[in-house]
Amino acid sequence: MNEQNSPTLTGDELQAALRTLISKGLTFASCTVAFQAKGRVEEAYVEAARDKQRDGELEIDSSAVVSLSDDQGAYVMAWVWVADSDVWKGDVDSDGEPCLFENHYQCDDCGQEWTMNWSCACDDECSSCGKSYCADESVELDITGAPVGETP
Ligand SMILES: [Zn+2]
């Protein structure tokens, strides 16, 4: 191949090319396969890393990408599990589940309005008269506490 006919792309050109490929179906998985450990040395690092796996917490694909280091080792790409409860800073329900629904109510009898956050859109009782109500409106929150779909 003649290098003059295939010059190295700039960072911006590579990003544009990737966006085009993504729109045509390129996935991260297909990228990791393209860059996965190749050869005896890189594959040995992947095998050693897979011995350090903890089911459901730290997982390493057999097609992991390896970054060899000059410092007597290598970094091996891994998946670290992060539970919603590790991210969520708001209230939790009686089962410890994040309260991802901001439920709004209004009492027909006494007119009281209130908001209650819970892990689902649920009924609540008026604190004044005890009558039970379905939520008039339930705003679903994402794991950061912002309404779903709201852009930062
Ligand atoms: Zn009431």
Question: Your description of this structure?
Answer:
This protein has four helices and nine strands; from the N terminus they run H-H-H-E-E-E-E-H-E-E-E-E-E. With 152 residues, it is of the alpha+beta class. It folds into three domains: 7-35, no CATH class; 37-81, no CATH class; 85-140, no CATH class. The model has no long low-confidence stretch (mean pLDDT 93). Bound molecules: zinc ion. Zinc ion binds next to loops.
Rounded to an integer in angstroms, the radius of gyration calculated over CA atoms is 26 Å
Which hetero ligands occur in this complex? zinc ion
Per DSSP, what share of the residues sits in E-state strands of 2 or more residues? 15-25%
Shape: elongated
Number of helices: 4
User: Which blocks of ≥5 consecutive residues have pLDDT under 50?
Assistant: none
Give the rounded overall mean pLDDT.
93
Order of helices and strands: HHHEEEEHEEEEE
User: Spatial order of the strands in the main sheet?
Assistant: 6-5-9
Question: What's the total count of β strands?
Answer: 9
Fraction of residues in helices? 10-25%
How many discrete domains? 3
Structural class: alpha+beta
Could you tell me how far the N terminus lies from the C terminus, measured between alpha carbons in angstroms? 46 Å
Biggest sheet overview: 3 strands, antiparallel
